[in-house]
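User: Can you fold this complex?
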Amino acid sequence: MDALTAHLSEFGHGLVTTVELTVVTTVGAMLLGIVVATLRIAPVPLLRAIGTAYVEVFQNLPLLALLVLFVFALPTIGITFPLFTSAAIVIAVYEGAYLAEAIRAGINTVGVGQAEAARAIGLTFGQSLRHVILPQGLRAVIQPIGNICIALLMNTSLAAAVGVVELTQAANNVNLVEAQPIAVFTGAGLAYMLLALIIGQVTGLLERRLAIVR
Amino acid sequence: MNKTQQILFDEPGPRARRRIRIATVLGAVLLAGALVAAVYQFASHGELAAARWEPFTTWPIWRYLLNGLWATLRAAAATAVLSSALGLLLALGRLSTHRPLRWLAGAYVEIFRTVPTLLLIYVTLFALPQYGMNFPLFWKLVVPLVVSNSAAFAEIFRSGILALDRGQTEAGLAIGLRRGQVMALVVLPQALLQLAPSLVSQLVGLLKDTSLGFVVSYTELLYSGQVLSSYTHLLIQTFLVVALIYLVVNASLSKFARVLQARNNRGTRTR
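Assistant: Here's the predicted assembly.
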């Protein structure tokens, strides 16, 4: 237990970095997910192909391979970002593919009549998407989106492998000094569980507030 | 064209067709622009030179990378077998009529579903050796992967078993089978068939997880790429080739999952 209390500030910094990374990438991935899901249902075949290719590529590549490629290999062609930014971009792009699929599943649940009614009153593709389809589609998949956010939280730990000192790395560093692995790693594990629990609670709350009972 | 695409727009008329053409051209121009920018970045840093790509046409380089792929597949296979077996046991535990068993299996699943795999890897790397558990490299990767993936498998199995019509269990019990027999003879065979696509999708996730061998320095595909690039200094080329190999393997698996799904959907419609 001493190992935890003596290094509270290190754990605190790690925890804050993990939370920051999670929040930033969740927002980024959500925006990307909406854009890609829209591309996949657009009337233009080329845009649909781009959306499909995006999902196919980023769902089938390991996140760690993407991180390594982005952080270690891209600098050789002159593309460099700060470490935290790189990690955030890669995780957002990766999770964006999963969110796009979840959102598309949500769009699929919206009744055909809704889209037809939107067109009948003269809304364009973009308008019917924004005002009719997405608000209903997103509400249908709050739970799956919450699960993806929890997966995203766990995936932020991979940023440790390319040098970001977030919670997992902070725990590892403290353990290297204190050599009390049980206390240190259990503490970190509990912190992750707590964060996941918070995401789960928020998802549940949103679900109760927003979900449409049919 | 499937249902989603049809609900959002009608059969295009002349004006809509013109707009689609314009959007196609714009999209193509943007795509070409991105491609040109990428090629320019590669060229201006000399990474496009033939000498920097030539090694990837030689057999020794490919033999090394394919060895890495073989190690990835071995780790993935071991993880898949062990974690699906453990996952099935956990799912049965969670659905058992025995309360402590239900509670234990539930706690395991809930804990390891929300702890990052990398943290578990650090535990096997840095904590367990202190307590005399120093596994060989292969198991240092596979054990943490099994611990976390078995929780995922347990949830898949459980949802499949719960999704099956309750009448199946009731009918089994009514003709005098015991609970275990109903599970083994009636419920599981049907549930597994329905679950096949989800199980294959989970295999893709698991195969991606083996890239954590990079952290353990077990020479699977990603770490092989790392080792190779530190010899040849062909960083971006090596990692692009490694990514391509992952993409080919995983995309084939994903495709297989979709085929299974399509077959299942056909099956339920004719029944």
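Chain B touches chain A through 58 residues (CB under 8 Å). DSSP finds twelve helices and no strands in chain B.
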